[in-house]
Amino acid sequence: DPPLESKYECPICLMGLRSAVQTPCGHRFCESCIKKSIRDTGQKCPVDNEVLLEEQLFPDNFAKREILSLTVRCPNAGCSDKMELRQLEKHSSQCKFATVQCPQCLESVRKSHLDEHKS
């Protein structure tokens, strides 16, 4: 799979943007990363050192929409399904390769094997 494009990567945590926000100087960050940065290291953009106040941050709905349309792979071992990120939560709740905790012995088992495991 191709790596994540840098425009979808937070320059603070170097992960995919979560709750993307944009600064007045045009940089994108995870909302929690930039708020922590402003509190911990001062009121400046970590990319260009422009003055930055928390109330100047605004949700980056364009980035959010683009990120949710990125193709991702199901993280469950054995499942080869790919889907848009926006569909991953629904898929994960129904994926036959997902693991769940057995309510009787608390062991982790595949969802599709739970009935057989409990008997």
Automatic annotation (TrEMBL):
GO terms for molecular function: tumor necrosis factor receptor binding; ubiquitin protein ligase activity; zinc ion binding. Transmembrane segments: none annotated. Residues 10-49 form the RING-type domain. SUPFAM superfamilies: RING/U-box, TRAF domain-like. It comes from the Eukaryota. Keywords: Metal-binding, Receptor, Zinc, Zinc-finger. It holds the Pfam family zf-C3HC4. One of its GO terms (biological process) is lipopolysaccharide-mediated signaling pathway. The keyword Zinc applies. The keyword Nucleotide-binding does not apply. SMART domains: RING. This is Tumor necrosis factor receptor-associated factor 6. It comes from Cirrhinus mrigala.
